[in-house]
């Protein structure tokens, strides 16, 4: 149990376009999901906490207007990178919490040309 | 959440036990110790967590010292597939803003034949 999926697994886009990444909890409901990004050879950095039915909470330094988060149901959270630029190229990973543990999706690799 | 300190890297021979240490000297009474691992280009995988008692599951054992200022993750019979970055994280178990997993740099474990 406790499977989290992400879609797409990778995406390449042109600079200036927007990209939506989906995170789904497949066999459980998650009122809280988390979004991370990871640059090469670095650790995961928490971007925001996504709460079902309410506004996301962003970590300091993360632009909420650039990284739009929607948690419309108990099994789906989406992250939209708006007006993507090459510096947004990264590995984006979501996590959903059940009981006391968080379970992670496989990640989405975004490349902005 | 309390900060953790882990060695940057460790080697282990295949078939031998891998003992990964973690210091968390500022841990609070309501903070749990979590262990995750990340294999290259994948999302982190939950391993185990505990509060003050030692814990064991099908993947590993977690030994927490009596003063809770340090812990050790034990992989009893390491295989090549256990090569990964291992993260020790301390976190409050519940609550609205609780539940965030903040990743440090982790220990890069290399299991060698």
Structure description:
The complex is a heterodimer of chains A (113) and B (113). With 113 residues, chain A is mostly beta strands. Chain A has strands at 4-7, 10-13, 19-25, 32-38, 45-51, 57-58, 67-73, 76-81, 90-98, 101-104, 108-112. Chain A contains no helices and eleven strands. In chain A, strands 2, 4, 5, 6, 9, 10 and 11 form a seven-stranded mixed sheet that branches. In chain A, a hairpin with a 2-residue loop joins strand 7 (67-73) and strand 8 (76-81). The termini of chain A are far apart. The termini of chain B are far apart. Chain B is mainly β.
Summarize it:
Chain A is mainly beta and 113 residues long. In chain A, 0% of the residues lie in helices and 55% in strands.
Order of adjacent strands in the largest pleated sheet of chain B: 1-9-8-3-4
Extended strand count of chain A: 11
Note the total helix count of chain B. 0
Q: Please state the CA-atom Rg of chain A, rounded to the nearest Å.
A: 13 Å
Structural class by helix and strand composition of chain B:
mainly beta
First-last Cα distance of chain B: 37 Å
Averaged pLDDT of chain B: 92
Q: Which percent range describes the beta-strand content of chain A?
A: over 45%
Descriptive terms for the model:
heterodimer; A: 113 residues; mainly beta; four-stranded antiparallel beta sheet; globular; B: globular
Set out the fold topology.
The complex is a heterodimer of chains A (113) and B (113).
Chain A: E1 4-7, E2 10-13, E3 19-25, E4 32-38, E5 45-51, E6 57-58, E7 67-73, E8 76-81, E9 90-98, E10 101-104, E11 108-112
Chain B: E1 9-13, E2 18-23, E3 31-38, E4 45-50, E5 55-56, E6 61-64, E7 70-75, E8 84-92, E9 107-112
Parallel strand pairs in B: 1-9
Antiparallel strand pairs in B: 2-7, 3-4, 3-8, 5-6, 6-7, 8-9
């Amino acid at each position: 149990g406790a499977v989290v999926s992400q879609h797409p697994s990778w995406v390449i886009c042109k600079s200036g376009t927007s990209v939506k990444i989906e995170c789904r909890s497949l066999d459980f409901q998650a009122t809280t999901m988390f979004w991370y990004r990871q640059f090469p050879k670095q650790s995961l950095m928490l971007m925001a906490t996504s709460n079902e039915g309410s506004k996301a909470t962003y970590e300091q330094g993360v632009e909420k207007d650039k990284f739009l988060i929607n948690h419309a149901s108990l099994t789906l959270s989406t992250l939209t990178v708006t007006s993507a630029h090459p510096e947004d190229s990264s590995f984006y990973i979501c996590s959903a919490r059940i009981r006391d543990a968080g379970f992670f999706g496989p990640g989405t690799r975004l490349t902005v040309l | 959440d309390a900060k953790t300190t882990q060695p940057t890297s460790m080697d282990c021979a295949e078939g031998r036990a891998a003992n990964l240490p973690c210091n968390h000297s500022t841990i609070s009474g309501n903070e749990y110790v979590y262990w995750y691992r990340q294999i290259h280009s994948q999302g982190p995988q939950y391993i185990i967590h505990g509060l003050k008692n030692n814990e064991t599951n099908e993947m590993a054992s977690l030994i927490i010292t009596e003063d809770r200022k340090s812990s050790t993750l034990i992989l009893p019979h390491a295989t090549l597939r256990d090569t990964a970055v291992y993260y020790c994280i301390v976190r409050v178990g519940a609550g609205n803003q609780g539940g965030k997993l903040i990743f440090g740099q982790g220990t890069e474990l290399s299991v060698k034949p």
